[in-house]
Amino acid sequence: MRVLSFVAAGELYAADIECVQAVMRRLEPTPVRAADSTIAGIVNIRGKVVTLLDMDALLGRACREQPGAVSDAVVFKDITESGDQMGLLISAACEIVDPGSVQPLPPEAELAGGGIIGGIAEHGSKLYRILDIRAIIARFTS
Amino acid sequence: MKKIDTGLFLDDFESEAKAHIEKIEAAFLDPAAPTATPGFVNTVFRAVHSLKGTAGFFSLKKIVAVAHELENVFSQLKEGRLRLSDELTDAVLAGVDCLRVLVDNLTNDDAVDIDGVLALFRDYSAKPAPQPKDGEQAMTPGLVSPEVVQSLKDAARFGHKLYYIRVGYDRSLGKYYKHPEGIIANILSVGTIAALAVDGNITDVRERPAEQLVKALTALDTATLEFCSASVLEHELFSIAIEIDKKFIRHIPKETFHEGEAKPERPEQPAANIAPAERDFSLRLGISTINGLMDLANEMILTRNRLFSSVAENARHIAGLAPILHDVARLTNEMQEKVMQTRMQPVGTLFGKFPRIVRDTAKSLGKDVQVEIVGDDVMLDKYLLDALADPITQIVKNSVDHGIEPPARRKALGKSEKGTITLSALMRDGFAVMEISDDGAGIDVSALRKKALAAGIITQEKLDTMSDEESARLIFEPGISTATRVTNLSGRGVGMDIVKTNIERLGGRADISSFPGTGTTMRLQTPLSLSVIGALIVAANGIRYAVPETAVERIVRPGSHSHRLDTLNGSLVLSFDGGIIPAFTVEGIAAAALSRPAPYLAVPDTCKCVVLKASGRTFALVADSVLETIRTLIKPLPFFFKDCPIYSGVTVLGDGRAITILDAEGIARLMSLDAFAQEAPAVSAEGDGDGGHGRQALIFKCSGAEYYALWAENISRIEVISPRDIQQIGKARYVNVGGKTIRVVRPENYAPVQKRAHNAEKLYLITVNHSSAPLGFLSSKVLDLVTDSFHVETDRLKGDFVLGTGVYREKVLVFLDSRAIAEKAAGI
């Protein structure tokens, strides 16, 4: 599996490259009041309104970004039934790597991962937390 | 590749077939038509004949079988051998339904059972059917294989016309040809042969050259020959060239399998030709394609705006640039408009399905009801039409079930036995207004009132003030149903409130008027399009929001005498038109949506109040500024926000920024304005004016039934407190509010009234500003801040601490002398 690695919430993450549509620079999400606390805001990407999520909030931590702050984001392909697209605020996109096998998370780490990390993969000397995009979407469907 | 092509043709066939089916159904349901006039019969015959022909082309045997039965019945009607009866209409409609199911399952019709429908026609088909003319007989199924379609399509591309030839060949009679070779030779001299069947056996023309075909034919004495042929010649010329009578040759419009730009052929022999389907219904586009186009058009406008702003400075220096930019501006606008139009469909497509629903519903109830349609050409957004289908169906079924009386009762009342339901649509002020009227019994208002009272929906007090017209609107209340019996159609009391809610969700309004014995009219008003709205762009706390114009009553700048923004019960209120209405900041609304306490936010003096109206409730949205009014494309709210009740969608502004659209209905519901609307009539209908002639008073209640009033000018603020916050210090009681200690008094202690214990969880503290030591009155409920020319009488109720009594809206108010009370409490 080839993954795109990126830094978010101060940690190294990766997502299946098949799920990624684009990495967008310098987005200015419009904050949405009354929305779930994990939502950083909405942006217009080529006529499509994409909802951006905050990694810290997804992990249950305090957001470090100010609402509406300029940020880069990785935008995922639409996998929801309604065709809505989602992106994650990131501090840097790194590289595309093929880490080989993905190990399941140890149970105690699973808890800390907020249920959105599907596994751990190793490449070079780095550890990547592989995001489970469907699990992120599922948080909003319950 | 060929497989895909066939699929495309099937798509074309599907839309064409549906058009034919609708035509047949509409003809049979048109109250004016089913008198078996020649025009009527010709229409349906032609439709079913075309359908059968094209279905045969694709080897859709089940469709052919059902269409054949219908065709048979229609031809008997045409020749007067059969009379149109109710029973026959039922059979035809069943056949139409069956065809519809078959067309919906073109590629997988195995599961569709047609035997039941065919059995319905057994009685009619028993009569000898006329021998169809040669040219009219069904094509051998499978004659036109995908390969043949492809070759015909190729030929059509070069301007060839396509023909189906069916000719009986009898060597002994030599009726038309001396030699079968002659037929083939003649056809080949002016065109090609794409397919051939001899006595229903398909002969592969690609693998067997013409000579071999000739050889095969010479061995036969009699045979039925079927050809598919392409030729550049017109029908008549082709007939002459191949020496076969025109009636044995059928022109196949190339649109059947090639979506070309050529004009449809006018059938020369309507009954025998495959009539081209209605052009209006021929184009099938996925809504996603249209939405994609719309997104692109919008992107284009954004890009154009960027282009304009970047070249604006230099445009003067480039000769000829200005007119080009002008054209680009015009073209992009026009393009956007055109793309918008693709989503619009006539209301007729929605109304058209009701004659059938009404007929079926009426029949099951033993009633006779006809449908009249007026103004079916009003164009509405497809989404809207789809969304209106359920509410209108519910209304129409209600009308048939509860509105229209049984025939005997109608006769006794001197009405025509046949009831009428009228569906009408018209455009008014950028809205579509649809009316569904019946000439039935009307709503039994007294029964409705009793029911509403029994169900606890309304108080007797309120009922007494309601006119019949207002009472009829009780039908929209949840849990109301006037039907004395529950039927399987309606009468479960879950109808009209949902209808109303759904219409309002579409940005529309629903209203009813009813006259006993004459009928009921339900009026639905909706925007023409859900996708484009006029919106007010406001900014609040640095974020822009769109507010649909339809919800906006007025924009006011608070501060002036008649429009004052106050704090009441710790909430913002706006004096508006002589009454007070609740006012909210977006932050406050958001906090409520998240069930958090409202944040304290200083409202700047320069703020604007956007007065909104939703579900009859008026409230104000406090915004930092109102920026502009735009027409904008609504996009559905991403599902990540499905739990946010305060937004109805999102949109993209001219500068490319995505913003949310506030939902006035949702906000009104969230902030539970119902209670407010009932207890404090927000808008003074009496027109007690701009406050210039009256004095403002706050009306409130305490533990008892009495209404108290304080002059507003003496009040500094109102807070919500909990009884637990009250502390006893010595003989006096105090409460700490915002770091200040305030002496608390109960108004009952200062007026000659009964005292009861407070048991409310929430109390209001009305602070007055007479002395340096602040004093607060306890209240269980703050009702209203009103301006009126109060006449305070001093003789009826007198005391040291009471100014007197006044009357406001038939309520006696005890005016408290706050100064005297404050002085007494302070021990002065």
CATH architecture of chain A: Beta Barrel
Rg calc of chain B? 38 Å
Strand order, main sheet of chain A: write it out: 8-1-2-11-10-9
Lateral strand order in the biggest sheet of chain B? 15-19-20-18-17-16
Write the layout of secondary structure elements.
The complex is a heterodimer of chains A (142) and B (828).
Chain A: E1 3-8, E2 11-16, E3 20-27, E4 39-45, E5 48-53, H1 55-58, E6 71-76, E7 85-90, E8 92-97, E9 102-103, H2 107-112, E10 117-123, E11 126-131, H3 133-141
Parallel strand pairs in A: 2-11, 5-7
Antiparallel strand pairs in A: 1-2, 1-8, 3-6, 4-5, 6-7, 9-10, 10-11
Chain B: H1 2-29, H2 38-57, H3 61-78, H4 86-104, H5 115-120, H6 122-125, H7 146-157, E1 161-170, H8 180-190, E2 191-198, E3 201-203, H9 210-218, E4 222-231, H10 235-242, E5 249-252, H11 287-311, H12 321-341, E6 344-346, H13 348-351, H14 354-364, E7 369-374, E8 379-381, H15 382-403, H16 407-412, E9 419-428, E10 431-438, H17 445-454, H18 460-464, H19 468-472, H20 496-505, E11 509-515, E12 519-527, E13 532-540, E14 543-548, E15 552-556, E16 565-568, E17 571-576, E18 579-585, H21 586-593, E19 608-614, E20 617-623, E21 625-633, E22 647-652, E23 658-662, H22 664-670, H23 673-679, E24 695-701, E25 707-711, E26 715-721, E27 726-729, E28 732-737, E29 740-745, E30 763-768, E31 775-779, E32 781-788, E33 802-808, E34 811-816, H24 818-825
Helix pairs in contact in B: 1-2, 1-4, 1-7, 2-3, 3-4, 8-9, 11-12, 14-15, 15-20
